[in-house]
Predict the structure.
Amino acid sequence: MVILGIETSCDETAASVVRDGTELLSNVIVSQIDIHKEFGGVVPEVAARSHIEVILPVIEKALQDAFSMTAVNSDQRATSSEQPPSDPWDQIDAIGVTKGPGLIGSLLIGVLTARTLALVKNKPLYGVHHVLGHVYANFIAPIDRGTRVWNLESGAKTPKPLASSTQSLKQWELPKFPLLALIVSGGHSQLVLFDDHFKYQLLGQTRDDAVGEAFDKVAKILGLPYPGGPSIGQAALEGNPGAYPLPDARLDSPYDFSFSGLKTATLRRAQAEIGQDYNFSSGRIAERLSEAQVKDFAASFQHAAISTLVKKTCLAYDEYRPASVVIAGGVAASPYLREKLREALPIDIEYAPGVLCTDNAAMIASLTYFESLRREPDDPRTLSVFPSLSI
Ligand code: KG4
Ligand code: ZN
């Protein structure tokens, strides 16, 4: 079953074609990061307008890539002599689109496009959950078929390779149930235990800011560019994680998180470092910090935030003894989290490539496949968006 996935919940316009939930045929992502960078975060109206501009070319490119590239790496089918089909739509069995959570204007562009295409092309349509989608990035085989990440402003095409193309589908195994998922993105920080597909319990979640949101806010204080996760990770490489010890939130529920206190503690420590009190504007701290201090703050904050994630994931592992552990969402792209979790967990852990951890449509197509095995499609005339959809 070949699924076209469409994702527009925040600031990435993405389309992807995935076979049977696991075999990535194409993955096109147009990132608006450069546009939002100058504002230090995502501007919802700007995001929605940008989605309108690129969604149709992105879908078209994903369809083209899918059927011109399957001959390349697949060890299961297609030989190079196979002719590409005249209309890629003939190969698509269903469409999956993110229906929520996310920014309402951004979600509407994806859902209305998917509804229209489902009606015009006569394909079944599934509206799916963005956060669950992040987990399904781990169900996609790490085979490199060349994922395209475009820079919207320059229009330049920057091909970003997926993980090792030397692995074959035969060596790779699907994550096993029961499965423990640490979901960490700009909007979510959750520990979820799956007994099977769609049978899960929420063990804990953040009481306030999501961890990615805390990275983004602390980056702003330190004068580092948006998005904060990668820029803090980069600065931290040359910083001392022990330079500014930061507190760990104490919560009565063992699997809940809180990151807003950590963000404020970092702010207060930075104000103190430049000899000011809590009244000093957070927007003017960066200009008074030395480069070395910024690196030390980045390393100290990253260490505190990631230590909490690792500690709680290990606690949940010890209690529930799942057959596999996965990490999902933009923060799962963090090399520091990957390294620390691998060190702390007593089992082997495989990570999805970074480009499938941040927002993409391959994860949406994969989730749609597993949903399509279990339920009827949605009505393309009425499918709505759900900006606050919870897990
Ligand atoms: O999943 P995502 O792309 O969008 C949401 O659904 O929120 O996650 C975006 C978040 C941002 O807060 C960003 O700072 C963080 O993921 N992020 C990272 C990395 N790449 C993105 N955090 C740590 N390390 C990274 N390499
Ligand atoms: Zn996301």
Remarks:
- The CA atoms of residues 163 and 177 lie 24 Å apart.
- Residues 44-73 form the longest helix (30 residues).
- Confidence is low (pLDDT under 50) at residues 70-80.
